[in-house]
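User: I'm new to structure prediction. If I give you an amino acid sequence, what do you actually give back? Let's try with this one:
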Amino acid sequence: MAPNLVRYRSPEEDSARWAGFGFREGDIVISARSKSGTTWMQMICALLIFQTPDLPAPLGDLSPWLDWLITPRDTVFERLAAQRHRRFIKTHTPLDGIPLDPGATYIVMARHPLDAAVSLYHQGGNIDRGRVRQLLGQPEPAAPGPARPPLRDWLLAWIDDDPDPREQLDSLPGFLRHLSDAWARRAQPNVLIRHYADFLADLDGQMHRLAESLEITVPGGTWPALVDAASYARMRASATRLLGPPGVLKSPAAFFRRGTSGSGAELLTGAELAHYHARAATMAPRDLLAWLHR
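Assistant: Good question. You get back a string of structure tokens that encode the predicted 3D arrangement of the chain. For your 294 residues, that looks like this:
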């Protein structure tokens, strides 16, 4: 691990796996916290690169998650080295934890943290924890863990939790650290920050904008099919083909649960929402929060 990089670790992730990765000119690194549009951006990049809705392999093969401990690091490196298309790599690590190569483009996806948290809660029920422990070589717990609280109670606790964001990456401090670091780099020509809500509002326009930033030319007649394939409804209908059969995910289709904005704020009273904003204001710049919460 380079001494100038922050190391981020969780039971399933380790940013130190980036050490020694060989970049190529034109590589794309997609960096986002969980449930912030990572898979959506992977799909959009795949469509722009291959220029067909009929992708040659599941997204996880085309765009490996480099810091995920379930797949051996050498295996991931070998798969990426063998790829001949323009590479697009998934990471949940903030940019201060991965090498920044001048020939690569870094796309950071942002989503309202409350919406991402609600999606994260539902995602927790769709993960086969026993299968994850098996793949990581972890023992089964001696006794069942406590039952998850109802969503609203969980969300209120999530807002108030204050862990080390380097170890609890999906906490509110983890979300805002990730985005604050990217926000500070937004003037760099190879760092692109994109908002989930903008793709919901204008998928066609945002895909055109991204293609221009990535210097990808797509024939005009090809666009409608690509935009349709990137729509939330189409991705949900194609979930098994995109994500593979059930495994770590109990249901690939449930991974694409709702795909909207505003679900987090809907659960909170006015006072609770104000408390969330007060907490967020202690963790991120005001201009970032204004952009993020708009």
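You can read the tokens as a compact description of the fold. Here is one thing that stands out. Residues 52 and 225 are 8 Å apart (CA to CA).
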